[in-house]
Here is the input.
Amino acid sequence: MKNKIYAGGDEVVADVPDGASIMFGGFGGAGFPNNLIRALARRGTRNITAISNNCGSGDNELGILFKNKQIRKAHASFPGPTANHFQDCYGAGEIELELMAQGILCERLRAQAAGIPAFYTTVGVGTEVAKGKEERVVRGKRCILESALGADYAFIKAWKADRIGNLIYRKAARNFNPLMAAAAETTIVEVDEIVEVGALDPEVIITPSIFVDRIVQVPGR
Amino acid sequence: MSKQRLTREQIAERAAQELPDGGCVNLGFGIPNLMSNYVPAGKTIYFHSENGILGMGPRAKPGEEDFDLVDAMKVPVTVIPGAAFFNQAEAHMMTRGGHLDVAVLGAFQVSEKGDIANWKVPGTKGSGGIGGAMDIAVGARRLIVCMEHNARDGAPKVVRQCTYPLTAIECVKAIITDLAVIDITAEGLLLREVAPGFTPAEVQRFTEPRLIVSENVPEMRLAAGGM
Here is the structure.
């Protein structure tokens, strides 16, 4: 059976190429794969397309990747008041940004994971985000067409993994992580603890192992 | 009688009276976020946070913070008995899918048709940020806006047509400000209450669209000593 467990952050991102599209879990300081992000900063992968709710907080979370000019394009919902490195890049015209409603970001990931190429929604009708999108009336309501959103990689954070990649999360640190795990070609998870197969009750598993390709156990946030 | 406009805390206090016992409620940034301090005694509200919490309790006490348990403003919080955790997509099924009894958002402008603009100030640098506001505005069963009645330069924020980038159209049901409680109805803006000491005519002067005013518009009721 394929071994999904890697020795550390540097090893697990060692083959992530320039130009890769990468989803990053996390919200409000919770559930960010900070060790994987720092490993990616050390590796120096460039021309990244990043998909994430936020765009960093100072040097933390995605901040270091914007500071290092490793990200070329971002799909985000709320870049954030403390995303200074992102805002510097954005102000200088160095970053292409697609801004979208947070729930639509979620649903686009879910559509990708579920094999649904596009869907209609009332969210965004009559606003800037509707520009260039097909509009039609569905069941009496004005809707716009939104497309699925996937990526080459998902970098996610979970609490515990078993050795084949079943995952559980802690509290509000779950947020985008399970959605991204299911929407990427290759999902890399950093966890606080790896346990034996069978140690996690099947009733409580949030992300089934089928969605997880690589696991690292790393200390700290 | 004093003729002070309400403080932000008092707007929150008045708005909290709109929350139904047992209701599932999302509070946005700004004044709405203050409302959880004013839930009327005897009511249980299940506060929803778009990062995957239903049943959010008060802020965590110093020394008891768990940074995996934060609200949408990154503040460490607690949960009440009956709380649940879920992923962000489920959190937004609740917003968009019409499952929240009430949502309360801040705003830069609200139009007489119920359009809301709350995510970007035109002409400012930076990207702006949408966050959960569009999903919440479109999907809440009852959307209330809490805001100051006028901008710092005195410009009305209750307007005929929004000039700021829109968050969503035709969705606001009520506006609670430092001057008034206004319902948005099919007939237009109905002045439901005025701030203590103010007359409907005064509120009209600070409001761009015409208000529908009944013969007796009551004053808002706030806790004694709050003024």
